[in-house]
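Re-running Phosphoinositide phospholipase C to confirm reproducibility after the cluster update. Everything else is unchanged from the original entry.
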Amino acid sequence: MQQGTLMRKVKSKSWKKQRYFKLQEDCMTIWYQSKRTGKTESAFSISDVETVREGHQSEVLQSVAEEFPPERCFTIVFYGRRGNLDLVAGSAEEAQCWVQGLHQLIEPRPFPLTFALVSRTWIRDWFQKADKNKDGRMNFKEVQRLLKMMNVDMNEDHALRLFQDADKSESGTLEGEEFVLFYKALTQREEVLSLFQEYSEDGKKLTLLELVDFLREEQLEDEGTEELAMELIDKYEPSETARARHVLSADGFLMYLCSLEGSIFNPQHRGLWQDMSQPLCHYFISSSHNTYLIEDQIRGHSSIEGYIRALKRGCRCLEVDCWDGPNGEPMVYHGHTFTSKIPFREVVSTLGKTSWGNSSSPLPLMGMFPPSSHPQRYGQSTAVQGISLRPESVDPRAQGPWRHWVAQGASLSPTPQELKHKILLKGKKIGRLEDTLDGPGDEAPDVSDDDNGAEAEEERRRAKVRGTQHGSALQKDKETLAQALSDCVIYCKNVPFRGFQEARSHSRPSEISSLSEAKARKLIRDEGNEFVRHNAWQLTRVYPSGMRTDSSNYSPQEMWNVGCQIVALNFQTAGTEMDLCDGLFSQNGCCGYVLKPPFMRDKETLFNPSDPSSREGPGPITLTIQVISGQQLPKVANSKEGAIIDPLVRVEIYGVPADQAHQETKYIENNGFNPRWDETLQFQLHVPELALIRFVVEDYDKTSRNDFVGQFTLAFANIKPGYRHIHLLSKDGTSIPPSSLFVHIRITE
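Result of re-run:
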């Protein structure tokens, strides 16, 4: 990693300032200062960095693409709502040095190292904040100030005793390893130690057999338990001597419980664990509404950053509102509003670079072209230059970053597995899918040889009636829709929804209808079972009400309850709705596809979410959650100096109406560092296959609304029973290590 590199910090096409950037000796902090004044401008921790993008992968760097080559450019992306840092190095070599060095520092490591690194970073950050005179030492007064900063309200005598025990040099100050000792004493986990000693005969170690007993009885691990115990010892035991003896110390036990294997989220479900070879309509698909907007719907800013962030979050269905711009150049923005505009070419270029990168899903991506937003024919032709849809072996002239081809004999109901690395366009289409695959044909459907003559004649009569009814609309499409753009629409032809009976009679699996949230709710209320059946064979997209000009969201759960696959949300707006979305799609390697339960994939299903007894399968299950403790909870944003939170935990169940519920613990006064609840909450779930569990930590306030502290949401199917840690996320869905909850989970029928 370079030390003190001169680079350009770019904020816009006209704002490019030279700054010196330097990685500090702790390899955890980067500061930068002005070349002209030498004054330090800012600093940030490596733990704040989410990723590093090379080249012109930001709106700002794309605006200076003609001035600076991509090999000298990179973007540092931070967690949360902090803006990106766009940089231009003096040479390609310098850029690579920084990019590779940052990747080395932020890339995931084996969890024991990551856990230790997070703890060390946490300690160092607090030490630097509390060390007011910057002498590298901390007296007791500074320690008292630190405890307030860390959400700890501790008796002064007890704090002084911990301080004196850690002051091995008897200098009256703590430095280096002395402060680490103080921190370890401060973070002693009595509830974990008690659990450890319950299974340890001598109270000092767990033998291999004792660890096997714990895994079987408490963690409900019933297969390959001895092999798992050996793996855990090798992975989490810090002592080489203990590893050689196949025993686990108390420190190793804690590291296991804080690890991915000790998380409430089943580690086997983090990767792709579901079948991806079923028709598209059998999956819930992570979907974004007006993806290009990063603010409100009326005057908000349009940016390619919206697409990049949605893709990084696992979204596989994006919206592209395409309208005419200068000289017939298509532009993307929210039509008939005052939102800013971005060239369609930039959107295509960005998606071509980021749709299937290392951190993106290989499964198909859907591009939504709202029916009202098509540009005029010249603009459509320009747009199609970036979109090719032909077998490459047949049409070698196919160009552009959006490459998609249809295999010979392709099914009318393709699977995510078959469509890997392909983009599907949803929009208007002239004619039928069969016309695109097989060439022009008669509008009347094919009739098989074993149909009798009367049935065949009746089908032809119905087709003729349909042709008369929709002929004018088809003619209008032909007049306003470029054939080349129509040919790009294959498996997602947009059709109006005219009722379930009409859809069963005339629609095809390759077609899709879009419904407003209000229309979808009415159908759920009036025809719940019909809605579920419809979604078992055809795609449905639901989008937010036009009244949500502030980019707020509706609850996606009620739409998922009837099997709607494409439930579009405003990804830029944090809140419970996006927590549910992230919670559902955090499984399967965040690929953006989740297989629906079997009873929602059957076209003849009797299931209706308003009647849980209509679900085929076992009866209700009981979910019992003992909320034991919390660790190092963050302070509420913008709270007063010295304020300490009064945390409580609320568990919320989202699912079919009969399962909707929430319960909460009492609040703990003045302790955000290591609160202890030891309370048991119990829920009955009638349709667990559709349930999402949301754990929320709030700061209790008796005079006003509680303040949000952190949350974690996951599907019931991904819960791992036993003693588990829940690693909390911020309001933006980003990690806030080392904040966590410690719980005990039991599931019974």
